[in-house]
Design brief:
By secondary structure, this protein is of the alpha/beta class. Helix content is 36%, strand content 19%. It has 15 helices and 18 strands.
Length: 495
């Protein structure tokens, strides 16, 4: 955990090894006149600006060996009037990689001259997310291990309320640490994160935060009639699990539910996936990771709202016991489902989880997250997640929350016309529709199991890993997409 604290005195702490100064393209003099710069470095910075080496559009790093802070990093933010939180995070994310390369551990951020335009928590978020790495199974010599930032001091104006500002920084830190916790889950290979291990991790988190939790076994799910979920796990020797974590607050006026798809490995079942890229199907539980990561934030922050987190978890493997194309199963809701393709399994485990949540907990609102369809990547690439809901207020609230943290959503249509595409031949429903509108028909399938509950479906197939457009997220690793979005949405709802 990074030690992050604020000061308003014009001092440089011992052991600071890099002074960080945000700079605007059209106000470079403000950076050059920072109170924390020593006289010689002010002169050097002014010369570099005059020569055009520092332009305020990109980052600039230079050593100051005779100064107490050793190095200076200028964060280029572009024109002051055009700057946004996203641009700040992008620039800081690029700086994070430089800090790691140069083995910097103690930063001093000069925020006094930018605090009227930008919040320092954006810098904090980019650093925490940007220095994330996953080396659990790598043999790395000590001198080659990544060097992480361990301390950030933020210098603000004397007029700033340090207590309130520190609370805001702490909130940003917690949100991002939970996102990284979710990324750890997502990046584990399938043999190191089975449904049982995922359940153990979730229960351990609930215990650490003193939050109620329980796990349903396959026998318990069978008694409840969750035959759709159990059909998916039938081909695997690993037992399916249903994880439930409950946060309750005495002053809560509403209850929201988070449901995350937890396929710890998806081979496609009898409808076997192509071998190329199948190793990435360890990421098919990123919806679960995001829901649990957001729930971790809820458990720590304890907002005045009731939150239920439900994670159906299974493997989808081919075997003599696996469900077959053409089989018909009866879901917990009583609706029968004809399975045309066993690789459309996420909706099969989610439908029982959605019905269970609606009937047992009766939430006011419900959001599910799933790496559900490759069609979503075709439609939206690796920049946006698909959003489907028939509730305009939920659509706006989730989109706004996502925009604030750069976890962007794009709304797709959902209506009875789409639901008709999933009428079964020999059953109430079939689990795939025609060879078009795959993302929408997947959402339409799920809508049959939410009753009258306000509900939104997020297809994060393109953003859960391989996410683009965020310099502070390694594209080769799980992104934690959804953790910060849902956290902000829940906090907004609790207000």
């Amino acid at each position: 955990m990074i030690d992050i604290h604020l000061i308003s005195q014009c001092t440089v702490e011992p052991d600071v090894d890099c002074l960080v100064i945000p700079a605007f393209e059209d106000a470079l003099n403000e950076a050059a006149e920072s109170k924390l710069l020593e006289k010689e470095d002010k002169s050097a910075l002014t010369i570099l600006i005059e020569k055009g080496n520092i332009d305020g559009k990109s980052n600039f790093y230079f050593p100051t060996p005779m100064s107490s802070y050793q190095n200076v990093m200028i964060i280029g933010l572009g024109k002051k009037e055009d700057v946004t939180a996203t641009k700040y995070r992008e620039a800081a994310g690029k700086a994070a990689s430089t800090f790691q390369k140069m083995k910097k551990t103690h930063l001093l951020l000069e925020a006094e001259h930018t605090e009227d335009v930008l919040d320092s928590d954006n810098f904090v978020e980019a650093i925490i997310l940007g220095q994330y790495h996953y080396n659990e199974f790598k043999s790395i010599e000590d001198d080659k291990k990544p060097v992480d930032i361990t301390e950030i001091c933020v210098h603000v104006a004397d007029s700033v309320d340090l207590t309130l500002a520190q609370a805001k920084i702490n909130l940003a830190q917690t949100k991002c640490e939970s996102a990284n916790w979710a990324r750890d889950l997502a990046n584990k290979p399938g043999n190191a994160l089975t449904p049982s291990i995922l359940a153990e991790q979730a229960l351990a988190m609930a215990k650490e935060t003193n939050t109620e939790a329980y796990v349903l076994t396959e026998s318990e799910m069978k008694e409840l009639g969750m035959n759709s979920l159990l059909a998916v796990s039938a081909g695997s020797k690993e037992e399916a699990k249903m994880i439930v974590i409950k946060h309750t607050h005495p002053d809560a006026k509403k209850t929201v539910a988070l449901i995350g798809k937890g396929l710890t490995f998806d081979a496609g079942g009898i409808s076997l996936k192509p071998g190329k890229g199948m190793e990435d199907m360890k990421f098919d539980m990123c919806g679960a990771a995001a829901a649990l990561g957001a729930m971790r934030n809820v458990c720590i922050m304890k907002p005045a709202i009731n939150v239920i987190c439900v994670v159906p978890s299974s493997e989808n493997m081919p075997s003599s016991a696996a469900v077959k194309p053409g089989d018909i199963v009866k879901s917990m809701s009583g609706k029968t489902i004809e399975i045309y393709n066993t690789d459309a399994e996420g909706r099969l485990i989610l439908c029982d989880a959605l019905h269970y949540t609606v009937t047992k907990y009766k939430p006011d609102m419900m959001v599910d997250l799933a790496t559900l369809t490759g069609a979503c990547i075709v439609a939206l690439g690796h920049h946006y997640a698909g959003l489907m809901t028939e509730d305009d207020d939920m659509a706006e609230a989730l989109t706004v929350a996502g925009d604030k943290v750069h976890e962007r959503l794009w709304r797709l249509p959902l209506n009875d016309e789409m639901r008709k595409l999933l009428e079964g031949k020999d059953a109430d429903l079939c689990n795939i529709g025609p060879p078009y509108a795959g993302t929408i028909t997947a959402g339409a399938f799920l809508s049959n199991f939410v009753g009258d509950t306000k509900w939104a479906h997020l297809d994060i197939a393109g953003t859960a890993w391989g996410m683009k457009g965020a310099s502070y997220l390694n594209e080769k690793l799980g992104s934690g997409f959804g953790v910060r979005l849902l956290t902000r949405w829940i906090l907004n709802e609790s207000e």
